[in-house]
Each structure stands twice: as C-alpha cells, then as structure tokens.
Design goal:
Elements lengths: L3 E6 L1 H8 L14 H7 L1 E8 L11 H4 L1 E3 L2 E3 L8 H18 L1 E2 L3 H8 L5 E7 L11 H7 L1 E5 L15 E2 L11 H13 L2 E3 L5 H10 L5 E5 L13 H10 L2 E4 L18 H15 L4 E3 L18 H10 L4 H17 L4
Parallel strand pairs: 1-2, 2-6, 5-6, 6-7, 7-9, 10-11, 11-12
Antiparallel strand pairs: 3-4, 4-8
Helix pairs in contact: 1-4, 5-12, 8-9
The protein binds zinc ion.
Length: 341
C-alpha cells in the first residue's frame, strides 16, 4: 500500500463536539487513527478550526441562499479573539491527548515507514494568533507546523473567500499589515503557509512575500468547479513556479461544475480535479487533501479507509506507481523539507 499524507481533516472539531477519541473508531465521523491505518494515511494535517458557535454545525440548507444562477452563503462576521484562543486551546489539547504530533521531516519519514501514524498541527484561520504575533512562538513550541491565514471570513490578517456559486476568489483586499508580518514570521519559524480559503489578493501577497513553496491544502480547481474556494489556473502556475502543491478535496459539492447542492458525486468527479492539476502543472505539484469531517465526501470516498480505492482508480486512468508515490507523499516531503526548519 502506498502511504499517503492527507492535506486536511477536521476530525479534531468532530471530537471536540462529540467528546469521543481519535484513538477509537468513531463511525459518526470519517477519520480516526484505526481508519487512517486501514486506509494507508501515514500522516495528516489536523485542523484547529474555531467555529462561530458551540454545539452542532448549522444545517447547510438553513443558511444557503439560492440565487438566479446558483447559491451563496452569507459571510460570517469576524471571530472574537477571546473565543478563538479558548476553543483553539481545547482543540489542541485533544490533539495532544490522542495523537502523535509530527514536528520534523524525520518524524514524517518515520510515519511513512509505517512506524507511527502522525498528525501535523494546522491552524485553519489565524484568529487564535495575537495580531502582534506575541503568541506565535508558543504555538510553534506546542507543535504548530502549518497555518491558513484566513478561513472563509475576515480576520486581523486577511480575507477568506465566501461560499457561493458561481464565483472567483477575486473578492476583496489582500493581507493586512499584520498578515504580511505573519507571512514573514512563519517563513522564519518554519511554519507552512496554506492558501486554501484565502482570496486572490491575499494569495498574490503570500506569493510575493513568502520565500517557501506555496501550498493549497484542500479544494478543487476553478476550471472544473467555478467557485471562490477553487484554485485558479493563475494560482496553479504560481504554485508550480514556487515548488509547491495543490491538494484536491474529497467533496461532492466543491468539485461540481453545475452548482447543484445535492447528490453523491461519482469518484470520477474528484479524480478529474487530480488529473487537471497533474496535466496543467505536473504530477510533482498535486496531492490529496480529503477535508474528512469538514466536507461531504462522495460515497466512494466515504471515510479514510477508501483512500486505496482512489489510488487504484488513478492507476486505472494510467497513473504509474511512481506518479502515485509523488501524489501520495513525495510532493509533501519536498514541500516540507523546503519549509520546516
Ligand atoms: Zn477548509
């Protein structure tokens, strides 16, 4: 089985809500340690994401507004800093309790050798970071190795894209002065910067300021699914030129071309996005970012055990064993070697 590094999951948020453990199989969700092992996911990026409210997430159907040619979801207001810090701390404590944190490339290599199943701590939205960056080093010491500047709401550092169809990521201003400082500080510390959810002006700022590979950890491609969350051709070319990668999401809605909000997409719909990135910028710049427990995966990718089926289906499309190893983990190794200290 080819070991895979998964670019994004929201399993910490699920366990924060349901009080279970990532060490045990939890069929309420899509990803836990037993199913990572079964599916060959040697390590994954575990998101610390702070929701606006406690309790169950709102039913998407209750917040989506249908428009003449698609849909839109009202943008959430900024998160209060005190809430962001408090909830992020609770999510990080779950990671420390249940998971083995990967802090170095050598530790990631041990996971790929099958010695451990690892977790890379990722902040999805920088709200828990003080705008003066006073607590960034404390987060690094706690294991933070990856950071998405903004989720799909504005914060002190930048602006995320709204959820809507159709649309582009060209939705507003770039990084704030604090956001530009955050990019420099992450470069210096060796924290990977993730551009998923960030708008186009913010992406261009990251590309201009960062001296590390540009990484898009979970989403589809805009040429196939014209929503602001998708990565555009312009962005893909910048990612290639930086030595970075774009990781494709396992989501039925975010990979659709027609804006429909229902239905269980066929596996091929996700594979088309993987092939698109490989064909446009090369197999050395594509990866997988499931978004398990944060998205609506197709039935064929219903949980972490289904990853080998995805690799088999790509092999049937002509992907060589070497190509699949690049997709599964080699591209991540290159990017993280060029990013972490
Ligand atoms: Zn996300």
């Amino acid at each position: 089985m080819i070991p895979v590094v998964d670019g994004h999951n929201d399993a910490l948020l699920r366990v924060w809500r349901n009080g279970r453990s990532l060490r045990e199989r939890d069929d309420e969700g899509c990803l836990d340690l037993p199913r990572m092992r079964e599916g060959g996911i040697a390590a994954g990026f575990f998101a610390i994401f702070v929701p606006a409210q406690d309790g169950d997430p709102p039913d998407p159907r209750s917040i989506v507004v249908l428009t003449a040619d698609g849909y839109e979801v009202p943008v959430e207001p900024p998160l209060p800093f005190e809430r962001a810090v408090r909830i992020a701390d609770e999510l990080a404590a779950i990671a420390e309790r249940d998971l083995v944190l990967v802090r170095t490339v050598a530790e990631l290599e041990r996971c790929l050798a099958g010695e451990e199943t690892g977790a890379i701590l990722h902040l999805e939205g920088a709200e828990p970071i003080e705008p003066g960056l006073g607590n960034l080093e404390a987060w690094y010491a706690r294991g933070l190795r990856s950071l998405g500047i903004a989720w799909s709401r504005p914060n002190a550092f930048g602006h995320g894209v709204p959820f809507r169809f159709p649309g582009t990521p060209d939705t507003g201003p770039g990084l704030t002065p604090a956001g530009r400082e955050l990019v420099r500080a992450c470069n210096e510390l060796g924290v990977m910067i993730d551009v998923a959810h960030l708008n186009l002006a913010g992406f261009r700022d990251v590309a201009r300021l960062s001296d590390r590979p540009i990484v898009f950890t979970h989403g589809g491609v805009h040429a196939l699914a014209p929503i602001p969350r998708s990565v555009t051709d312009e962005e893909l070319d910048v990612i290639r030129d930086s030595g970075g990668l774009a990781a494709i999401v396992f989501d039925s809605v975010m990979t659709r071309g027609d804006g429909a909000l229902v239905g269980d997409a066929p596996l091929d719909q996700v594979l088309d996005h993987v092939d698109y990135v490989a064909e446009r910028i090369g197999v050395e710049h594509v990866a997988l970012g499931s978004d398990f427990d944060g998205a609506h995966p197709p039935g064929a990718l219903a949980d972490a055990t289904k990853v080998p089926a995805l690799l088999d289906a790509l092999a049937a499309r002509g992907w060589s064993d070497d190509d699949l190893r690049a997709l599964g983990h080699r591209n991540w190794l290159r990017v993280l070697r060029g990013t972490w200290r």
